[in-house]
């Protein structure tokens, strides 16, 4: 299990990232490059999510304020420099494998990180949304 995503963007991530794309933006490219075992990476101002199929888990991370500002400016077409940030784990969902033809089941699990940290992250997300 990953406790946090330490994202270090490079110039190629920025150059080939697609604006207004949750899965092909510069941040998603950076995560895909640095964490090749993660799939289905999605990046939004409200959160970052990714799946680790080998562990059978789907992770949800907070989007730090610096990254939110980057996303908004990148989508608006601004000229930007690569950034680095750490996204904290907020939630883990266990993905239960199903037989062919059956619907896939996802069971949410309280974040195995500190519950107080989860509450703090939730409050910070609300405050961040108001300040944007």
Q: Approximately what portion of the residues adopt beta-strand conformation?
A: 25-35%
Average pLDDT across residues? 86
- Our count of helices gives 4
Count of discrete structural domains: 1
Determine the N-to-C terminus distance: 31 Å
Shape: globular
Rg, Cα atoms, Å: 15 Å
The major pleated sheet works out as: 6 strands, antiparallel
Low-confidence stretches: none
H and E order: EHHEEEHEEH
Short descriptors:
alpha+beta; single chain; 6-stranded antiparallel sheet
Q: Would you mind describing this structure in some detail?
A:
The chain is built from 4 helices and 6 strands, in the order βααβββαββα. By secondary structure, the protein is of the alpha+beta class. The chain has one domain (4-131). Strands 1, 2, 3, 4, 5 and 6 form a 6-stranded antiparallel beta sheet that branches. The model has no long low-confidence stretch (mean pLDDT 86).
Concise summary:
The chain is 33% helix and 31% strand. It has 132 residues and is of the alpha+beta class.
Blueprint (SSEs and pairs):
Blueprint: E1 4-8, H1 11-16, H2 26-34, E2 38-44, E3 47-52, E4 57-61, H3 65-75, E5 84-96, E6 105-109, H4 115-131
Antiparallel strand pairs: 1-5, 2-3, 3-4, 4-5, 5-6
């Amino acid at each position: 299990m990953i406790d946090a995503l330490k994202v270090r963007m490079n110039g190629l991530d920025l150059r080939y990232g697609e604006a207004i794309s949750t899965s092909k933006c510069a941040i998603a490219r950076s995560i895909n490059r640095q964490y090749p075992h993660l799939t289905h990476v999605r990046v939004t101002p409200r959160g970052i999510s990714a799946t680790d199929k080998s562990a059978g888990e789907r992770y949800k991370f907070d989007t730090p304020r610096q990254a939110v500002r980057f996303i908004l400016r990148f989508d608006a077409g601004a000229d930007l420099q690569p950034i680095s940030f750490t996204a904290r784990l907020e939630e883990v969902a266990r993905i239960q494998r199903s037989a062919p033809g059956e619907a896939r089941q996802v069971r949410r699990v309280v974040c195995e990180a500190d519950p107080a940290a989860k509450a703090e992250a939730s409050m910070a997300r609300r405050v961040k949304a108001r300040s944007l």
